[in-house]
Fold Formyltetrahydrofolate deformylase.
Amino acid sequence: MTSENYYLTLTCPNKPGIVAAVSTYIFQAGGDIEEAQQFDDKASKRFFMRVSFSCPVDAATLRAGFVEIAKRFELIWNLRAVKDLKRVLIMASKLDHCLVDLLYRWRIGELPMIICGIVSNHPREVYSSIDFFDIPFYHLPVTPENKPEQEAKLLDIIAKEKVDMVILARYMQILSDHLSKELTGRCINVHHSFLPSFKGAKPYHQAHARGIKLIGATAHFVTSDLDEGPIIEQDVTRVTHGDTPDDLVRKGRDLERTVLSRALRYYLHDRVLNNGATSVVFSD
Amino acid sequence: MTSENYYLTLTCPNKPGIVAAVSTYIFQAGGDIEEAQQFDDKASKRFFMRVSFSCPVDAATLRAGFVEIAKRFELIWNLRAVKDLKRVLIMASKLDHCLVDLLYRWRIGELPMIICGIVSNHPREVYSSIDFFDIPFYHLPVTPENKPEQEAKLLDIIAKEKVDMVILARYMQILSDHLSKELTGRCINVHHSFLPSFKGAKPYHQAHARGIKLIGATAHFVTSDLDEGPIIEQDVTRVTHGDTPDDLVRKGRDLERTVLSRALRYYLHDRVLNNGATSVVFSD
Amino acid sequence: MTSENYYLTLTCPNKPGIVAAVSTYIFQAGGDIEEAQQFDDKASKRFFMRVSFSCPVDAATLRAGFVEIAKRFELIWNLRAVKDLKRVLIMASKLDHCLVDLLYRWRIGELPMIICGIVSNHPREVYSSIDFFDIPFYHLPVTPENKPEQEAKLLDIIAKEKVDMVILARYMQILSDHLSKELTGRCINVHHSFLPSFKGAKPYHQAHARGIKLIGATAHFVTSDLDEGPIIEQDVTRVTHGDTPDDLVRKGRDLERTVLSRALRYYLHDRVLNNGATSVVFSD
Amino acid sequence: MTSENYYLTLTCPNKPGIVAAVSTYIFQAGGDIEEAQQFDDKASKRFFMRVSFSCPVDAATLRAGFVEIAKRFELIWNLRAVKDLKRVLIMASKLDHCLVDLLYRWRIGELPMIICGIVSNHPREVYSSIDFFDIPFYHLPVTPENKPEQEAKLLDIIAKEKVDMVILARYMQILSDHLSKELTGRCINVHHSFLPSFKGAKPYHQAHARGIKLIGATAHFVTSDLDEGPIIEQDVTRVTHGDTPDDLVRKGRDLERTVLSRALRYYLHDRVLNNGATSVVFSD
């Protein structure tokens, strides 16, 4: 049998012997560790680990054999064959720079995922110059009145398409509290500021008024606390007094694209582990 | 007569002809413009300009001749011979990394200024390994009880020494409202966060708890609104989930040094102009 | 008459009075300076200036009136109405990330230019998922044998379409010495290294072998000296020992896009002035 | 017995089971892994690992027990108690910014090391404002004539003081071929350019002439190939056409300090492993 590539991620209360148990298990299954990262959180006394390895044993057998170790160390864990791609739903609005960027990176193989659908509150014509290949497009217009129905339709799509992660690619609508809770841990947003500065609306205008010298963008998990979910990735770029709010918007587009695509890439490689209000990101 | 180097800075309501008037005046005085920068603030409709030039005419004569132009364009302006160094007072506390850095840059000529004094709430022995040359040292211990007296002594020193700018080089005391107002526009602080995030105490601990991916430092003018004064310079550095609050403190020291020394350097070259809640910084 | 926006760029031997003459001329024509930058090169004793201004006078009249000043100061100069867009020809090969990026930025108005054509050594089908709108596409396959003819056809297109600037958007062919000379000052290339390191072929592999800690990209004018023309813009990103050459290629794509689009943007706003072996770039 | 902290570093031909063997050994010795990093070099087929752990067993016993594993996997390895500080010799010349910076970081505990001595080709008076505490100072003037003797004296100091690493903190002399070979792997230099660009003398002047948009600094191991040894750390900062060579020197000082201190910090924590012409750097 040929070898399969796997990602194993786990977290547990910290105690000695975890690395030895995990690496010995993989070795005895004939596996070869390609990359391993770990983090020992002194504050929460929790341990986090990600192992990328190749192994001739199939996923089901590996999982079954791992149960005993998982029990012994009280692991929350996940084992995934790299070839079993994550299923992603992209939500966009009129500003399409993040959408176009994600599609491009996906097309050339930089983001290994299955795009289950593209959802927008605008019709397909708005994206007439963009090739969606055979990705289903859903036009879900939203108004204050129809929001519950629109979000119900969205949840239907998510369920029907077995979506692993919803990506808000500058989707300019605020999700309802209900939907935010429903999608906790399953939805990544890009906010156009260096959070926690300038939460909420028009962050570039807020930044301009404050006379900031660097603007930023933040990719984070959505929670029911607006712009307060665990941060995955951030970046900044220099601005000056001479930059108008429009200039900040322009410079910010590059940041938003970069930050969102990096966060998504980390997610797609199982590099992001939840740690309460924060994220452990085993970056490459 | 040999030529003198000057910095001219000005701001006024924007109307055509300012650049022509200023540059013609300098030309007719036999001057040669070395560097000129301008900013036309569309929001406030104000114009800002900095000109560095050499000229065989002395400062008093240049100033006298410029009065007519200043009046015509309603200028707020300043003309300074580069050789007339700014007078700076440095305030420090136990953490001496910014103090040591400023003294080093001053010693090797990177920061052209007269250091009128070093003020600390700790005695001279705390800085036993630092050479203060012949800079006067003032030990002004501060307690909740003696704060008004201590600040009065400080204002005395500032007046007596004709201090142009007070530098809070990680001076860990919060200035009273009275002193902050007194020193508005004459006091630069370095805050150990990327403002406006994490105002107030223990910003590195706040940043760690929030799971931020970049930490920052900010040099800003002190106003009576704590950590809300016009920003002069900011910078950030990358951190990860693995960085403890102590690691952030260590990484932050480099940021604080860099940001404060850059802000001071801009100030010493008359590159910082006030624009309401923000600063115009004509960086080189 | 309503106002027109202009860019004026000039260079001349440095002597006093240029700024005064130029700004007075603009003022007397009823113009209002929006942005002005200058550079006094002590080494070459040359002066460089860029002025962006609005003015109710038409371009022809402005140019005619300026001749006297130009003569007096021995100016090499250019005056352009902002609305008279530059004409750009993009050349691409199989790697289409720069091409797609430039088209996107052009579509959303970030790069104000007329794209006269897209030239490739590959047929149109290779770009099947890209919308070229009504931009003419030229398939000019190149082999060692037909290179002179292919380049002749290219020069025909450049002449016929009155192309101002040719952009090599990761066009993987080396131009002949003849063509390079022909296009000196009229052709911008993006090289996938931090020049002058790693000139020539496979720079990411060279960088990997050398164990470099940051990789870069460089946008520069093409000259007949391969990868030696004046640099317009550069940027870098961090890499580690763990990054394979393929990882460098991936990380480099983002750099190449950013660096080329910034260089082109500077060019389209007349911010790039030639200074012998280097470029003066009046960035915003 | 209380626990001791250790760093274990190793490299070997890659084969499965190393991580399991190492982590099991540490676990069975009662140890707790704090941090572990590994690198599987596909090109050289070698494996690299660094483990930081605490353990109640003493170093000698741990080393003795590890011999069997080391033999089985053909390890080149090192185990060190964190409290056994590295012994470092600093060499400086007139430009003292790196020297001052290293001393400062050492004084406040940022660089855990024993400074065995400071060597300079200038006398002690040149550093009159610097507190050397009780670190021995060696004045070893160098001329073309006395170079062999001077280097012999240096090697004597290195031997007598059991120096682990020589730090060239902007020591402006080129080491002889003989000395370079003698110190291979035991000497870190900071070069004031982004290597491999601008090797040799006056790199800032070379960079200025080439019109570079970012300048850099590089910390690397010294080998007998001038400026060609394995790179440990690099960084860059933005410059413009307006920066003179003197400005580059000023901006470069900050880079040199940062890059050298980071490289030294990595070394002092056993984070730097040799990999032929390159370095594996397990950064934190």
About this structure: The mean pLDDT of chain D is 96. Chain D touches chain C through 33 residues (CB under 8 Å). The domain at 4-81 of chain D is CATH 3.30.70.260 (Alpha-Beta Plaits).
